[in-house]
Amino acid sequence: MKLEPLFETVGAYLEGRAGEAETQRALWNGAPWRDAHRLAIYARFCAAHRDTATGGVHRVLREVAGERWPALVEAYFVAHPMHSVELNENGAKLGEWLATRDDVPAWWAALADFEWWEWQTLVAPDADEADGPLRIASTVELRPYAWNFVRWLDADERSAAPDAANCLVIFWRNRALDARRDLVTAEELAVLKAVNEGAPFERGATFEDLHRAGILLTGPQ
Amino acid sequence: MRALVFFEVSRVANIEGIGVGLRASYAAELLTTSRRVDWLEIVPENWMFYGGKRRKLLRELRERYVMAPHSVSLDIGGLSPLDPRFIDGLRALVKELDAPFFSDHVCWSATHGRPLHDLLPMPFTNEAVAHVGRRSREAMTRVGAPLVLENATFYAHLPARDDEGRMNEATFLRACVEAGGIELLLDVNNVYVNSKNHGFDARAFIDSMPMDKVRYLHLAGHTALDDVIIDTHIGPIVDDVWSLYRYTLKRAGRLVPTLIEWDQEIPPLDEVLDEVDRARAHAKEALS
What we know:
The structure holds two protein chains of two kinds.
Chain A: H1 3-14, H2 20-28, H3 39-55, H4 59-65, H5 69-79, H6 94-98, H7 106-123, E1 135-136, E2 141-147, H8 149-154, E3 164-173, E4 179-183, H9 186-197, H10 205-213, E5 216-217
Antiparallel strand pairs in A: 1-5, 2-3, 3-4
Chain B: E1 18-21, E2 39-42, H1 52-64, E3 66-69, H2 84-97, E4 102-105, E5 108-111, E6 114-120, H3 126-143, E7 147-150, H4 169-180, E8 183-187, H5 188-198, H6 202-207, E9 214-220, E10 223-224, E11 229-230, H7 239-252, E12 258-261, H8 269-287
């Protein structure tokens, strides 16, 4: 069998787009090699990789979704097939995709977005953050949520669902290169806005906190 | 006439002795261990795209160890164009690590440019040999370093007819090495696993390998199920694989650089390094 039809047939099976019986028929036409049934091992491996690609980053969502998780993952990858050799990047659209579904709680999509940004913060490319003017660190991301995920995730005992509450969350990498996220106060937001716009502001305790955390950078580190 | 591929000769790093696969769970400990580790092999996909702590750790490790990249996504047997982002990343990583080569597997791993994230078997045919040869030369030219390909485990033979030049795995590997102008990463555990799963003589397979083209060896654990052995890289290396390792070194007549892999259910670093010590002892016995 030529490579092109062979890989097309096996690829469709391994992506979950074709069944085992039709794949076996297409490959061996009723006279399978003695180990043909072991093609199913690869199908299991590939399904496991799809699970890891999404469940590695979205650990809490995976736990929350419980028994629904495997079917959701398979449906997600039908809509958004693997595209990246970096495994986790293949789950980038999970939040966006969940937001289009009416059969899951709305906060699941937001949680997927939240966990995605925790991950993005951890692995964001390094920027040249040595000497320079006062600025916001390159890893900083501000995102609004309609649920208080910060309090929910940090609780000693997590409730079944987070409280509905409009929140602005800041994600950043601290000076020890750890990923951090927290709710943003009005004072912090005012300082960040001033720095972003180059406007004057008072360098008080809020500024010092943001600078110490590595959210604001200035001068040699 | 086949085009020759030339590389810069300024690289000084070279792998020798017994190394270990770099895994995130014990990577930081490798900076401080007093035990002997001759070199590290890294999976580029797990390091090259990240900044932050992981990037910093990689830089620090490079100051102490010689490192070589061993990828799983080159898709050397696949039909999609080589992934330009991945190739560019490999080229940069090889340069950053001062690596003497880059390695991957004789397999395909993507369909229509969509990674499947597994090492899928090639059909052992003339068409596949020619294809792997062409792609290998292209990859070497674009990455700018020699390519070393590993014999992968395979659980199912893909269909191949006699009029397509059907051959066995050993013949296929030799032909790929020749067609691509590449070197071989001979995974001794894979030879053992394939020999058990497909019923051939592992030592005869080793005998048929072009030992002068073997750049390094892999050793790992595996998992025996009811009717098949899976190459899980779990657990200590079994006696039969140590025996095959000693046989391979005797055939080679030299200490071929060797790499210990332990990729799932990873124990504390010291337990992995116990395997490194065992490999060193087996090598000494084989070559004494």
